[in-house]
Amino acid sequence: MAGNKKSEKHNARKGSRQLSPREELEIKQRLKRKEKKSTIIKRAITAFILTIVVLVALVGVYLFSFISSLNNNDIISAVKPSSNETVNILLLGMDIGDAENTSNSSARRTDTMMMINYNQRTDNINVVSIPRDTLIEVENATDGKGNKIPYWKINAAYVLGGEEEVIEQVQNLLDVKINYLVEIDYAAFRNLIDAIGGVEMYIDRDMYYDDDAQDLHIHFNAGETVLLDGQKAEEYFRWRKNNDGTGLAEGDLGRIKNQQAFIAKVIEKCTSPEIITQIPSILKAVKENIVTNMSGSDMIYYGLKMVKNEGISMNTLQGDNERIYGQDFLVMNPSYNQSLLESLKITSEANKSANRSGYSIMVLNATRVNGLAGNLRIELGNLGYTNVSVGNYDKSKESKILSNDKELKKLLSEDTGINDLSKNKEEEYENYDAIIIIGEDYLTFN
Which of 111, 122, 386, 415 sits at a 20 to 30 Å CA gap from 361? Predict the structure, then answer.
């Protein structure tokens, strides 16, 4: 045994030399440093993950609080869009109205009017600015002295008939159904811009205007880039002309172009990663300053659609300038706006004329929410499908359309907003032209 141990020690010395105490100490120190560095990295990663979790949790708390607390009972009811319709949100920028009694909301006019049109099928977004001088006709409207006046500017619609009159006039102009209404005054506007940390804008011309009555003072120099806080943003948004009469050659139409450029910058700011830290202050500003008939969940859902969308189209309603009863009006000309008006619709004329009555469709509810298949059957019936059956299906997260008819799959996708298309391999339903499976995701986009 002793001889074997001696031989092993000899072989070990032969294969590798024995380390000195100093070398052994250095190796131990290197291992300790490596272990310490690894521990620091692990702690940093853990801290980072915990920070993200806490941040997401806080945002979740704010979102829940926002959704549960937002309730405006004093505004006209919303009209919930169906899955085969565009979503139209009317945005009204309100002035103060009666300067001596700012609480008198009936005296307020719509200084800015925009409609946001969202196509649920294509994710396309159109923003349509309506000039405040646009001509409207209002039955039985008087000038306050008993004199009937049929022709008015659209910015007076709120004074004449409140929210109902504004919505009716916009629906008549654009031939759409308004689903939601959002009213924001300049105090709310300032708070929102401050909440996102301001917006940088390049000033392409001198802007000098003073109105002591409104306490409005605008001073910007051409060629400078300015970080606009809420107050400065309001000044930029409202400017049309200078004290000496110079300014935008197109008047209100030119101001709309400035406003659209500013809104594009706001959207760009809201799509930046750092905006997540501003979410609590943004939601607080919305809750405290904006009047709307949208639910909190709808505002978040469509707001995310806006900030994630890279193809937002900015448009302005076009018309002819005419002088009527001593006032200058913009008379909307349908021929100038034909392509815009068509883009606001959910289907083309070709799709509207498609023959849907000859198909047999099975709609299957793959969720735990009762009534979804029946509701979709009604919507499909309104579109012209006459042979629609309903049933239940194994729980599924994803909505799908199954059909061996390529054209029918495309048509149903356009009519329902469901984009997951496959061939029908369901033997139980092989006699149907198409099967629509309603999954849990249907609840998020419908």
Answer: 122
* Torsion region of 197: left, alpha or beta (phi above 0 gives left; psi -120 to 50 gives alpha): left
Looking at 180-194, 329-343, 350-364, which range is the least confident one? 350-364
List the structure tokens of 227: 């970080």
* Average pLDDT value over all residues in the chain: 79
**Which of 307, 326, 343 delimits the end of a domain?**
343
Please identify, among 69, 96, 126, the residue that sits at the C-terminal boundary of a domain: 69
Q: What is the model's pTM? A: 0.60
Domain membership of residue 218 as a residue range: 73-343
Bridge partner residues of 329 (DSSP): 322
Domain count of the fold of the chain: 3
Q: Which tokens belong to 198?
A: 């301001």
Asked if 64 and 202 sit in the same domain, the reply is no
> What are the DSSP calls for 155-188, one per residue?
GGHHHHHHHHHHHHHHHHHHT----EEEEEEHHH
Contact 94, 108 (CB under 8 A): yes
Residues 254 and 136 in one domain: yes
CA atoms of 85 and 79, how far apart (whole Å): 11
> First-to-last CA distance in the chain?
84
Contact 377, 363 (CB under 8 A): yes
Tokens of 254: 């030119």
Which of 70-79, 250-259, 355-364, 367-376 has the least mean pLDDT?
Answer: 70-79
103-108 long-range CB contacts below 8 Å, 24 or more apart? Answer: 106/159, 106/162, 107/159, 108/158, 108/159, 108/185
**CATH label of the domain that carries residue 255:** 3.40.630.190
The mean per-residue pLDDT over the stretch 285-304 comes to 78
- What are the tokens at 372? 């979804």
pLDDT for position 148: 82
